[in-house]
Write a structure and sequence with these properties.
Largest sheet: none
Radius of gyration: 19 Å
Shape: elongated
Order of helices and strands: HHHHHHHHH
Number of helices: 9
Structural class: mainly alpha
Helix content: 55-70%
Length: 135
Amino acid sequence: MINCRKILELYFEKISQRTISSSTGHSRNTVSEVVHRAKKLGVECLNDTMTNPWLEAFLFPKKQAIEKGYFPVDWEKVHKELQKKNLTLTLLHYEYATETRQGGKVPYAYRTFAEKLLKICEEVQIDNAYFKKTW
């Protein structure tokens, strides 16, 4: 497990990435990746609510799903497919689950699939009219 909080604390104290690497025991590439993702996502300082598990899930969301054994979903593809006529979320989940099982991975359950899509739609502020009529 990556100690993202410690890496970012040291980075915000203006300590070099090489020194952070040696003091945390993580590779320089790992330190660089954590710092890069934090900058990209706009993390400029840490507060008490930013625990290490929270930071790891925030900075590496796909990694979390893969480590739990779930196959990540291509949400952009799902969004585009939902705009087609006569295509339902149930059908898209069925296709996702079938492809995932054929690849030897574990798919999300339908409910989790739908909840994650709704959360993403809210974050990106996509009109979720589909959910209003189906939920």
